[in-house]
Amino acid sequence: MPADPPSTRALAARRRVGIRIRDARLWANLTQESLAERVGLDRKTIYRIELGTIGARLDWLVDLADALGMPLADIVRD
């Protein structure tokens, strides 16, 4: 049975998280590819997370926060 589509609120939260990750990546002067290598994901996954088209798993968010040198809370705050 397919999962229900995410709510409008969840989609907006994904986008905000993606923007924070992108901004932190750019501030750290990293490309999507170099960030992906640091966290063990592919560049397309980073791209999709930044756009908010996919929801990032918690373990990905932890790894991204570490790679970007920022607290996880700063990525997911509302």
From TrEMBL:
SMART domains: HTH_XRE. InterPro entries: Cro/C1-type_HTH, Lambda_DNA-bd_dom_sf. It comes from the Bacteria. SUPFAM superfamilies: lambda repressor-like DNA-binding domains. Signal peptide: none annotated. Coiled coil: none annotated. This is Helix-turn-helix transcriptional regulator. It comes from Streptomyces spirodelae. The lineage of its organism: Bacteria, Bacillati, Actinomycetota, Actinomycetes, Kitasatosporales.
